[in-house]
Amino acid sequence: MNTDSSSVAFSVLDLAPILAGGTPTDTFRNSLHLAQQVEAMGYTRYWLSEHHNMASVASSAPPILIGHIAGGTTSLRVGSGGIMLPNHAPLVVAEQMGTLASLYPGRIDLGLGRAPGTDQRTAQAIRGSRFGAVQDFPSDIQQLQTYFSTANSSSPVRAMPGEGLDIPIYILGSSTDSAYLAAALGIPYAFASHFAPAQLLPALQIYRQHFQPSATLAAPYAIACVNVVAADTDAQAQWLSTSLQRFMLSVVAGHPAPLQPPVKDMTPFWAPAQQHMVEQMLSYSFIGSKATLQAELQEFVDRTQVNELMAITNVFEHEARVYSYQLLADALRAVTRQPLDAVVS
């Protein structure tokens, strides 16, 4: 974990988008290639999300994808952004992540969320009798911590592999509830401002004000997930970003669709109310040239004082996606932050 108070770590969140005309096989090939490229660019970590019953994303099994990415890279941290813990028994998560951490020591992160990552009908199919398990989210996290601890070695139920391994746990959230929990447990906190921007600043303030140091984390560590589309010019980046807008429009409409090619004009695709909703959801989107990104991200870091930026880049052409991450890395090398004691609300 980055501990330099002046530098901002930068990482990748991959939804494993399925492209129009493409297949999950294409998605997984692109994800591995992207991970290899961003590893060389100096990115810190590469996280994969958990979503179900969506024709637009292929990330329904994060542990398998984590193994795929970790096996094709050498130093990049790879993890879940996140595993939706109420969908799974804590012991199974501990065993799966313990297996990955045994295969790729010192490189596996465990980001945990409480949402289902899908619609309610699919959540019922996944959780079955555990449908109310969302209420157990705090205790399930503590159970995971127990399974990973050496103190659990005398328990009749043990995570093998998993026990005694250093697998950092992160709490993911899109509301202030998760901020209180991450603070109480002394766990790093990642906020989903790429689609839920409204609560970012209040959540960060709560997390820092209520943070309780733990055995694994002495001071708050906050990650902000943001949308980024970078290109050589602002105009080109804006054009590329229409694929992201069309993707979010399909989510808003309740019918998530594969990622579409960019278009010159979004006017035929959305009504004014839909446009407003999409633009609100994408408030924390950084779109433009390297110079534009550097200026806007510096302002964002000055305002939020986050330790790390995790970028999600949904553009249609794979080469443009890789290039966007290169421009972002170049821009972020000049972005700095103040010490946490200088934070103002």
TrEMBL record:
GO molecular function ontology, one term from the record: oxidoreductase activity, acting on paired donors, with incorporation or reduction of molecular oxygen
Listed InterPro entries: Bact_Lucif_Oxidored, CmoO-like, Luciferase-like_dom, Luciferase-like_sf
One term under GO cellular component: cytosol
Pfam families, alphabetized: Bac_luciferase
Domain Luciferase-like: 12-252
Listed SUPFAM superfamilies: Bacterial luciferase-like (SSF51679)
Similarity field: To bacterial alkanal monooxygenase alpha and beta chains.
NCBIfam families, sorted: oxido_grp_1
Record-given protein name: Luciferase-like monooxygenase
Native species: Hymenobacter aerilatus
